[in-house]
Amino acid sequence: MAQQQWIVTQDKTFRKWLNTKLSARNIPPAQSLQKDLATGVLLIHLLEILGNESLGKYASNPRLRVQKCENVHKALEYIRGRGIQLFNIGAEDIVDGNLKLILGLLWTLILRFTIADINAEGLTAKEGLLLWCKRKTACYEEIDITDFSTSWNNGLAFCALLDFHRPDLIDYYALDKSDHKGNTALAFKIATEEIGIPALLDVEDVCDVAKPDERSLVTYIAYWFHAFSQLERIETAGRRVEKFVEVMQGAWEMQHSYERRMAEVCLRNDPLDYLALIFWFTGHQLLRQMCEMKQQWSTATFVGTYVDAKQQSQQFSSYKRTLKRAWVAEKADLVSLLGNIKTKLTTYRLKDYEPPAHLSLANLDLEWKKLLQDENKRSIVINEKIRDIKEGLRRSFADAANEFALCLNTVSLQISELDGDPEHQLRIVRTLHRNIIPLELELDRIEKLSDDCEEANIEENDYTVYSYDELEYEYGLAKESVAKKLSFLDNQIVARSMTNLTPIQLEEFESVFRHFDRDLSNSLQEIEFSAALASLGLVYDEEEMHEVFKAVSARGRSVTFEQFIRFMVEVTEDQNSAEQVYQSFKEVADGKPYVTEFDLRHSLVPDGMIEELVSTMPKVRAEDGEVGFDYEKYMERLMGKELDTNGVHH
Fold it and tell me: What range(s) does the Calponin-homology (CH) domain occupy (predicted)?
């Protein structure tokens, strides 16, 4: 039961500590350490707040267990990277809601980020905190702090700390020393409402248990230490400011005395009093600033980019909103100040004051007029530069886009006009293939020009009808078209050499190969090769398929079209040799049920073979008296089986 109580107390205290830290990001408070830390998201937020740095990318809304584990693993690795040792804890423990390990992890973070900076006389953070508590309460007879547990049961230690640092908030000597809960509740209320210390503990956590949880108390009291240490720093800073002001007051008195004496000198030597000095200084400063600004405009240069021109335009706009308005106000103040000077001199019937010629109102108005003229010139220069840069960007993109489109059109035209034997076409297409690949670099340059135009807010371009997206799409089509044509010609040359296949078979095999060649590489991976064979009715188990693939690909990584066709020739010959021979005789006979010697010679069968066939095949005589040879009976006699007219064994 005692063990269960400390878990409950730490769960509540550490959860409040966690929520106090997370409040910096307006994150909804955690309701359960086991559930809310399981995703790893709150743990990453906590570490980013404590470490004041980003942990990088992570799954902000994890749904899968593996995503949650990856988040927690990132957090644990960050903790270890800060030199904090972790024992017997892994990401799965947090995801699975192991409360004891979660509390241990949070205690480790509290030690490092809340308590570690407390030090005194070379002691550990915890020992230093205890020593601080002892020293602050040493003058209170009823209090003897020896630990972070039973020493705090009656609440007097908390009240004493408040009385020591803020006696205006509590009357310690008026407390009922026997009212443990009342004293504790009063101290907690003042600490939260007046000092701003988070309410991590409840009265029941301290007063209703024989031995309050040490870690929870250490965590809470550490906030008291930091709060009162801050108050002490503020008081120290206030004393420094007070001492500084005392020192500076003497200097200020001397400064004021100097200014009064200077004014008196000016009044004795010339009817120009202290106001006249201010007028002279202010007017001189305004003219100097105006001159410097005009000089800056006259020497300004452009680097030729839109970014630079736009930046100078923004700087010019900022000048008109800030510095120029300040000058307008200052100019008006100067006019008013000169009027006050003249009024004051008139009041005392002194000689009228006329400022130096370069500070006269007439000269100030003249210089202001020149400033406005230079300002207008500067505006014109910037606007013209921006227009020129935009025009240049339009033309640069248009020239590149039009040239690129012309290259693509040339490729398409050459593909469509291909003629002649396959070898000749293949040489042309290979040249096109070599030439079209480097165009990708030009496409990258066009993308950069397009980005520059977009950055310059260029939405229209009368010099071209193409956009980058269109050119990228058309380039993909052209590259794919060349690749397909290259594969087709390679395959046609291979197919042409396969004379022992019928055109129908060849077309079927080529169609199947193209269908499963998804990446247009003119080759099939093992899984594609297996699917292609299955579509042709050749099904193998996994082990057999792997052996067939290795044999056909010559232990390569893929099967080429030529290897695929040769394999199909072998398989077709092995499975259908009788049917093929029968169909061949039928084609030689032009569909007749018999073949003549003329048919055999017309099909370019060698003479020796013709003589052998004529002497062994059954003779028949057609209705027109023509002598022929019954190839069907000849095949049946050789095979020992009857053939139907479709060439199928019976």
Answer: 8-114, 123-229
Q: pLDDT at position 399, please?
A: 94
Scanning 99-213, the segments in alpha helix (DSSP H) are: 99-110, 125-136, 156-165, 180-190, 203-207
Q: Using the predicted structure, report yes or no on whether residue 398 has a pLDDT greater than 90.
A: yes
Alpha-carbon dihedral sign for residues 55, 57, 59, 61: positive
β-pairing, 523-524 with 627-629? unpaired
Q: Which distant-in-sequence residues (6+ apart) come within 8 Å of 193 by Cβ?
A: none
Q: What is the DSSP letter of 113?
A: I
pLDDT for residue 648: 40
Cα–Cα distance for residue pair 103/194, rounded to 1 Å: 30
How does DSSP classify residue 189? H
Q: Which helix (H) or strand (E) holds 619?
A: strand 619-621
Q: Which of 170-174, 191-195, 297-301, 358-362 has the lowest mean pLDDT?
A: 358-362
Polymer length in residues for the chain? 650
Q: Pull the structure tokens for residue 231.
A: 């108050």
Which neighbouring-strand residues pair with 559?
A: 524
SS percent in the chain: helix, strand, coil, step 5: 70, 0, 30
DSSP letters, 466-483, are --HHHHHHHHHHHHHHHH
pLDDT > 90: what percent of the chain?
7
Give the per-residue pLDDT at 448: 92
Range 235-264 average pLDDT:
49
The helix (H) or strand (E) run that includes residue 524 is strand 523-524
| Contact status, residue 21 vs residue 43, Cβ threshold 8 Å | no
Query: What backbone torsions phi and psi does residue 559 show, to the nearest 5 degrees?
Result: -105, 125
Catalogue all structural domains in the chain, each as residue range(s) with its CATH number.
Answer: 4-115 (1.10.418.10), 125-236 (1.10.418.10), 298-332+352-475 (1.20.58.60), 498-557 (1.10.238), 578-639 (1.10.238.10)
631 burial level (CB within 10 Å; 0-12, 13-18, 19+): buried
Task: Kindly state the average pLDDT of the residues 520-528.
Answer: 86
> pLDDT band at 247, cuts 50/70/90?
very low
Enumerate residues 6+ apart whose C-beta is below 8 A from 630: 593, 594, 617, 618, 619, 620
Q: What is the largest CA-CA distance in the chain?
A: 156
| pLDDT of 252 over the 90 cut | no
Helix (H, G, I), strand (E, B) or coil at 11: helix
Query: Which 8-state DSSP code applies to residue 112?
Result: I
* Lowest-confidence region among 135-139, 177-181, 581-585: 581-585
Two tokens, residue 334: 């100067």
Beta bridge mates, 649 = 643
